[in-house]
Fold each of these.
Amino acid sequence: MNVLELKDVTKRYGEFTAVDAVSLKIEKGKVLSLLGPSGCGKTTTLRIIAGFTSPDTGAVEISGANVGRLKPYERNVGLLFQDYALFPHMTVAQNVAYGMRYRGTPKSEIPSRVKQMMSLVQLAGMEARYPSQLSGGQQQRVALARALATDPQIVLLDEPLSALDAKLRLELRIELKEILRSVNATTIVVTHDQEEALSLGDEVVVMRGGKIVQRGSPTQIYAEPADKFVAEFVGRSNWFHGSRRGSSSEGVCTYVTSEGLAIHARTPLSNQRDVVDLCVRPENIVLMGGATSDVAQDVKSNVLAGVVLDVAPLGADMHVVVELPGKGRLLAIRKNVGSTPGFIAGQPVHAHFSASDVLAF
Ligand SMILES: Nc1ncnc2c1ncn2[C@@H]1O[C@H](COP(=O)(O)OP(=O)(O)OP(=O)(O)O)[C@@H](O)[C@H]1O
């Protein structure tokens, strides 16, 4: 059963189309991340669902009912918006209770519900404080408690963690995920941060220019991006621009870059164009030391000779930049290297990656 359905929703501001024929369904208990660059229409989509903005065409249905005529407070929606701060003159408890009073929850039930919400967001005991007496992270947790207090059919979170510093952001992200799962909240979370989108969402919807360009599981979005935009926007990548040489062998085409690099890529028949952009994820590149490669290069693998330019040990991962003399640079990421010896700048290496790990657009 779909808790929310958007049917062909369009919103224009003058000549400008902010949301362009967006259709979307979300099932009960699922978390959907809406990801895209600034200005792609994420917030407008959320505002349309919440009822703050009316679409020009299309329909919004919540649990099968068209809510087009309902005011925001009449829609059973919980909100945590960027510009929807806590009320500074109200205590934490009053803030959390706010939506319940509005929605006509019996007065006698409110204190116990506030208590329940405070313990859910791990702030029990802070009910009497004012927002100014809380840290940024605590304020966001109160805002989340306020959004969830009415047990809404759908929870809309717009950049819920963006105001926090990096460490707190990560901590609260994990907590947010747990809380949403524990109350089985059907949620749309808007973010321009790809890591946040991939880690929070059961599914990710990528938007560009008001349109949905791809919807899929976090793994699909990363491993099978629908186009160059998604591949560039989600995750890190190395790019080559190549022209096809000869015909394909076993589904693998060879492309030559303007710098003269030959790259083999497994490309579906439908996409064997003459000029393509090629993408290799840094995690798929294996580096081997030594000036000569013992691995025979066949059409299914790529072996590029280079020299280590820079090594950045980033915790468990190691980022290695390789200079391909006269032919550009490559970033390789070695995961979970732990205490294994790394590479050093100036060291000759060979970068190996399979043709099936090369995406062609
Ligand atoms: N009330 C308005 N009047 C005119 N243009 C608007 C209005 N609201 C939004 N827009 C435009 O619509 C586009 C989409 O805006 P929206 O806020 O939905 O983007 P977003 O993807 O949420 O971006 P961000 O990540 O920066 O918040 C933007 O180009 C914005 O300038």
Amino acid sequence: MIEHPILSIKNLSHRYSSSWAIRDIDLEINRTGILGLLGSNGAGKSTTMNIMCGVLNQTEGSVLINGIDIREQPELAKRQIGFLPQNPPLYLDLTVDEYLIYTAELRKMEYRQIKPALEEAKERCGIAHFSNRLIKNLSGGYRQRVGIAQAIIHKPKLVVMDEPTNGLDPNQITEVRTLIKEIAVEHAVIFSSHVLSEVQMLCKEIKMIADGRIVFSDTMDAFNNYVEPHSVLMQMENPPVTAELLKIAGVDKVDFVTERQARVYFTGDREITERLIAASVHNGWRLSEISLDKTALDEIFKQLSTKTMQS
Ligand SMILES: Nc1ncnc2c1ncn2[C@@H]1O[C@H](COP(=O)(O)OP(=O)(O)OP(=O)(O)O)[C@@H](O)[C@H]1O
């Protein structure tokens, strides 16, 4: 028997009226766990997710869910997908139970399977005690849990979540992230975010999308290595001239941020900090602070985002 990938997207492109929102997206998921789709607002995350869940018809390319073409056999393919869109379609005047039973029926679940599936989904999402509560009387975090419950009630292979923590308060964000991690033990989860730290925290694999194209695709470890700081910030009471700093092995470039603070770009290992401290002591630069430059991470993120626009 042929084993199909859970999700296989090839050369996916979409055009709204005249302009392309996404171009040539390739993506494959073969196992459970979380894949992060990272991109800033307007990068093309929602467009990609709406197409992969059969909500939007693509202009070009193909989406196969477990080997089934979502455009050719949408009903069959959608049974394997759970989707939490950016604005979950919750019916505020229904109770949690009424709503979840309705979504199970939409998925054409067998009648006798619905009751146990309902209980299991509520249990997993921590909403069993709200079974008879109207959705409009739930907090944002609990509404999001109901949204997640409708995405998993039919036990799909693939769960797609479009910015699931957007608009939640910090406690709710932590709870929803924990829930996503739990769900990913049994399901393949693809999750979008514009928050780099969130993707770093949750995902083993990352696809970064910018201006409708994938600009980075690898494991989270590879991404973290890639975006390791390449500069340090040095605060000195008696700073040297740039040329003195450039003499130190590994230093590529120096920018003075203020008269006494230099950003020192380097290649190679992080032992550069030790060499800089030693040089400072030796030459009397009176170093008061030295740190790996965190803003460098954002800079690299920006560079990756704009890479395709320039090429
Ligand atoms: N219905 C639409 N009609 C025309 N253009 C659209 C439509 N929906 C999205 N776009 C455009 O397509 C591009 C990609 O948008 P998309 O919503 O997929 O991005 P996103 O990464 O999900 O961003 P956000 O987080 O802001 O939703 C943007 O330039 C957006 O303006």
